Amino acid sequence: MYASKTTDDAMIDLSMKRYETMGIVPLDGSWEFYPQMLLKPGEFTESEPPSSLMLPQELIGYRGTATLRLRLKLPMNDGNRMHNFALKMPYFGAASKVWIDGSLRMVTGSINPFIPRYIPRVIQFSTRRKKADIVIQVANYHHRRMSLNRILFGTETAIREMTHRYIIRDSILFGSLLMLSLYHMLLFLTYRRDRTLLYFAIIAFITALREGIVDERILVRLWPGMPGEVMMKLGYMPVFLLLPLIILYIWGIAGSKASILPLMLARGLLIASGVLLLFFPVSIYDWFFQYALFIFIALGCYVIVVIFSGKILTSKTGTILLAVGGAIVLTAALSDYFREINNINMPELLSFGILFFLLLQAYFLSWKLDRSYKKAEHLAEEVKLLNDQLEQKIEERTWELGQVNQRLERLSRIDPLTEIPNRRYFEEVYTGEWRRSERENLPLSLIMMDVDFFKAYNDNYGHPTGDVCLKKIATLVQESLKRGEDFVARYGGEEFIILLPGHPLESAAKVAERLRQGIQDLNIVHAYSEVASVVTVSLGIAEKHIRPGIDRGILVKLADQALYSAKRSGRNRVSISPEDASPLSPEGN
């Protein structure tokens, strides 16, 4: 099936070449082929002529072992000198052994027990002979296709220089793709709303993985023990995932303007391909690679047509960049597909195609950024013009708002009738003075004051006259408080509350008596009072040295109780809270 019977020896003649100028020669041509046999040098017999197999070759469906043999006539050797030659072998089957002139020179993986290992090797040998006999044992129980790739022959110097060039090339490409991926991933982590940056990073990363798996296999060199199945999954991943990711990227740029059909197809293919790669062996997804990849190619062609139609981007520059980049990627993918399936001697192009596509997209993103920057500059000039016009209006509005806020602040703190602080403002000041007294160990005194028989005054003289009476009392109290920290507020109705920070009880009692006498001396006629013919007041005093843990409401409560005591004792008097022992007994008490 794979080879033909022949009686001719498999031989490549290089005897007409000179060692110094021979360069690198592919050992393409007819090799002796012994299927399902593992023969070492010296075990070949003439009883049965070998089959002939043309290399390079893909043996589809071949599972098992085989032996290949080639006789090589070496370049002319003047003076019988020792010449240093080398073979450049890409991965050959899944595991292999190589003998040259009867000497075992290279073992890759393990044939028995079978352990696959896919890595290119350089085999050096030195000889004075004019011929070389190459024997290769190969095994494959892993892959659906046994790849017998091209073997290169040349001087050791030429082979190693070529290998080093390829390693440097692949390393630069691998590193460039990784840097692109990292850069755009960091951009995505900064601007999470733009998913195109995430798709860009994933595309670059997957392509970098592929570049590390093909040709000189940088990743396999860095991880020599990489399992064969893991390597295969990494190698096939870009084949199945790149096109759906590129479509997601392009449709992410287009936004809601583009048709949703390719987007849905891309998502479906992405999920199906992920399941195929994660849960199935290489023999399954390689079959899809060989026979079903045209679905991806057809979808790629359709996407390029849609891009050229101008339905994705309204920008001509963006359309051209996307279309050209997409066409290059598709061409590179087709080239690699036929390279793998038909073993065409072409370099791996998909990684270069993707890198070129990503560079075009980087230019496109820079172009978009430049347009956005220029647009932002124009908008900034317009905004500056508007700002210049609005600055004066803003200043005027700010001044007006300040005036309104002052009025609101005053309304929230000042009693509108008496124009002294209200109960809300008192609570704020009281809290602050309580803390200060506790901190500085100062006494804090409080006076509760109530106008005697004020309801009768209102009922008989009328509420407007009652309001005038309250205003006069508030004015007198406020003018009588001599220290700046002393504070009076209308507590409610005809009740007033006076806060005296730092006043001991004796001082507070004197203030209270002065207020009582001063209000009586206003001589506001009150014919309906039961204690005097003029308006009088009753006052209750409480004083505390504030200590930690004391309830803040206790001082108001004690002053209120003292006020109640003054009313019960006949009104028009000052009463001290029973808890505040004091020798002072103000007049009228």
From TrEMBL:
Transmembrane segment boundaries: 172-189, 196-214, 234-252, 264-282, 288-308, 320-338, 344-365
Class in the EC hierarchy, top level: transferase
Signal sequence extent: none
GO molecular function, one term: diguanylate cyclase activity
Cellular component terms per the entry's GO annotation: plasma membrane
Reaction equations catalysed: 2 GTP = 3',3'-c-di-GMP + 2 diphosphate
Gene Ontology terms describing biological process: cell adhesion involved in single-species biofilm formation; negative regulation of bacterial-type flagellum-dependent cell motility
Protein name: diguanylate cyclase
Lineage: Bacteria, Pseudomonadati, Spirochaetota, Spirochaetia, Spirochaetales
